[in-house]
Amino acid sequence: QVQLVESGGGLVQPGGSLRLSCAASGSIFSITRMGWYRQAPGKQRELVATSSSGGRKNYADSVKGRFTISRDNAKNTVYLQMNSLKPEDTAVYYCNADGYALGNRPFGSWGQGTQVTVSS
Fold first, then answer.
1. What does DSSP assign to residue 12?
2. How far apart are the first and last CA of the chain?
3. What's residue 1's pLDDT?
4. pLDDT at 2
5. Burial of 113 (0-12, 13-18, 19+ CB in 10 A)
6. 33, 45 Cβ separation under 8 angstroms
7. For residue 34, which of 48, 19, 17 has the smallest C-alpha distance?
8. % of the chain surpassing 90 pLDDT
9. Rounded distance, CA 70 to CA 82, Å?
10. Distance between CA atoms of 82 and 66, rounded to whole angstroms?
Protein backbone atom coordinates (compact mmCIF):
# COMPACT_ATOMS: atom_id res chain seq x y z
CA GLN A 1 0.00 0.00 0.00
CA VAL A 2 1.28 3.41 -1.00
CA GLN A 3 -0.45 6.50 0.32
CA LEU A 4 -0.25 10.05 -1.00
CA VAL A 5 -1.01 13.06 1.18
CA GLU A 6 -1.38 16.50 -0.40
CA SER A 7 -1.21 19.91 1.21
CA GLY A 8 -0.97 23.55 0.25
CA GLY A 9 -4.27 24.34 -1.43
CA GLY A 10 -6.37 27.36 -0.59
CA LEU A 11 -7.88 30.61 -1.78
CA VAL A 12 -5.70 33.06 -3.68
CA GLN A 13 -6.32 36.18 -5.73
CA PRO A 14 -5.68 36.25 -9.48
CA GLY A 15 -1.99 36.76 -10.14
CA GLY A 16 -1.05 35.16 -6.85
CA SER A 17 0.96 32.05 -6.05
CA LEU A 18 0.51 28.77 -4.23
CA ARG A 19 2.74 25.78 -3.62
CA LEU A 20 1.30 22.29 -3.41
CA SER A 21 3.10 19.39 -1.78
CA CYS A 22 2.48 15.65 -1.99
CA ALA A 23 4.28 13.10 0.14
CA ALA A 24 4.23 9.38 -0.62
CA SER A 25 4.53 6.82 2.14
CA GLY A 26 4.17 3.09 2.63
CA SER A 27 5.88 0.07 1.16
CA ILE A 28 7.75 1.92 -1.55
CA PHE A 29 10.63 0.38 -3.45
CA SER A 30 10.84 2.96 -6.21
CA ILE A 31 8.71 5.71 -7.73
CA THR A 32 8.75 5.99 -11.50
CA ARG A 33 6.62 9.05 -11.97
CA MET A 34 4.89 11.61 -9.80
CA GLY A 35 2.55 14.26 -11.01
CA TRP A 36 -0.42 16.53 -10.59
CA TYR A 37 -3.84 16.44 -12.16
CA ARG A 38 -6.83 18.69 -11.63
CA GLN A 39 -10.58 18.53 -11.97
CA ALA A 40 -12.81 21.56 -12.22
CA PRO A 41 -16.58 21.34 -11.57
CA GLY A 42 -18.34 19.74 -14.51
CA LYS A 43 -15.10 18.88 -16.27
CA GLN A 44 -12.96 15.79 -16.65
CA ARG A 45 -9.76 15.32 -14.71
CA GLU A 46 -6.81 16.64 -16.69
CA LEU A 47 -3.05 16.43 -16.49
CA VAL A 48 -1.25 19.45 -15.07
CA ALA A 49 2.37 18.31 -14.80
CA THR A 50 4.41 15.15 -14.33
CA SER A 51 7.98 14.38 -13.35
CA SER A 52 9.70 11.09 -14.13
CA SER A 53 12.50 9.49 -12.19
CA GLY A 54 14.85 10.24 -15.08
CA GLY A 55 14.21 13.96 -14.70
CA ARG A 56 11.85 14.42 -17.62
CA LYS A 57 9.03 16.90 -16.95
CA ASN A 58 5.79 17.34 -18.81
CA TYR A 59 3.34 20.24 -18.55
CA ALA A 60 -0.10 21.01 -19.88
CA ASP A 61 0.02 23.85 -22.38
CA SER A 62 -2.30 25.90 -20.19
CA VAL A 63 0.24 26.02 -17.32
CA LYS A 64 3.56 26.20 -19.17
CA GLY A 65 5.63 29.13 -17.97
CA ARG A 66 3.50 29.57 -14.85
CA PHE A 67 3.73 26.25 -12.98
CA THR A 68 6.85 24.34 -12.01
CA ILE A 69 6.97 20.74 -10.84
CA SER A 70 9.84 19.48 -8.72
CA ARG A 71 10.69 16.37 -6.71
CA ASP A 72 12.64 15.50 -3.61
CA ASN A 73 13.38 11.84 -4.23
CA ALA A 74 14.90 11.35 -0.79
CA LYS A 75 11.57 12.37 0.75
CA ASN A 76 9.33 10.78 -1.91
CA THR A 77 7.72 14.18 -2.27
CA VAL A 78 6.58 16.17 -5.29
CA TYR A 79 5.83 19.88 -5.36
CA LEU A 80 3.88 22.13 -7.68
CA GLN A 81 4.78 25.82 -7.61
CA MET A 82 1.93 27.76 -9.16
CA ASN A 83 2.52 31.37 -10.13
CA SER A 84 0.41 33.93 -11.98
CA LEU A 85 -2.72 32.03 -11.05
CA LYS A 86 -5.88 32.59 -13.05
CA PRO A 87 -9.53 31.98 -12.17
CA GLU A 88 -9.53 29.12 -14.68
CA ASP A 89 -6.93 27.33 -12.54
CA THR A 90 -9.64 26.80 -9.92
CA ALA A 91 -10.03 23.06 -9.39
CA VAL A 92 -9.36 20.18 -7.07
CA TYR A 93 -5.75 19.19 -7.55
CA TYR A 94 -4.82 15.52 -7.23
CA CYS A 95 -1.40 14.02 -6.74
CA ASN A 96 -0.57 10.82 -8.60
CA ALA A 97 2.35 8.43 -8.32
CA ASP A 98 3.29 5.12 -9.90
CA GLY A 99 6.20 2.79 -9.40
CA TYR A 100 7.04 -0.40 -7.54
CA ALA A 101 6.26 -1.40 -3.99
CA LEU A 102 8.30 -3.84 -1.94
CA GLY A 103 8.20 -7.29 -3.50
CA ASN A 104 8.47 -5.71 -6.94
CA ARG A 105 4.74 -5.12 -7.09
CA PRO A 106 3.67 -2.24 -9.35
CA PHE A 107 1.48 0.42 -7.81
CA GLY A 108 -0.47 3.43 -8.91
CA SER A 109 -1.89 5.75 -6.27
CA TRP A 110 -3.93 8.94 -6.02
CA GLY A 111 -4.12 11.49 -3.25
CA GLN A 112 -7.36 12.69 -1.74
CA GLY A 113 -7.22 16.04 -3.55
CA THR A 114 -6.72 19.61 -2.41
CA GLN A 115 -8.89 22.54 -3.42
CA VAL A 116 -7.34 25.51 -5.20
CA THR A 117 -9.60 28.53 -5.67
CA VAL A 118 -8.48 31.61 -7.59
CA SER A 119 -10.85 34.48 -7.02
CA SER A 120 -10.89 38.14 -6.11
1. E
2. 40
3. 86
4. 94
5. middle
6. no
7. 48
8. 96
9. 11
10. 6
Q: Are strands 91-101 and 28-39 parallel, antiparallel or unpaired?
A: antiparallel
Buried b (16+ CB within 10 A) or exposed e, 78-112: bbbebeebeeebbbbbbbbbebbbeeeeebebebe
Model confidence band, residue 40 (pLDDT cutoffs 50, 70, 90): very high
pLDDT of residue 53: 86
> Do 85 and 22 form a contact (C-beta atoms < 8 A)?
no
DSSP for 42-102, written as a single string? TS--EEEEEEETTS-EEE-GGGTTTEEEEEEGGGTEEEEEE-S--GGG-EEEEEEEEEEET
Please name the amino acid found at residue 2: V
**How many C-beta atoms lie closer than 10 Å to residue 117's C-beta?**
15
- Stretch 14-34: mean pLDDT: 96
Q: What angle do CA 34, 119, 44 make, to 5 degrees?
A: 45
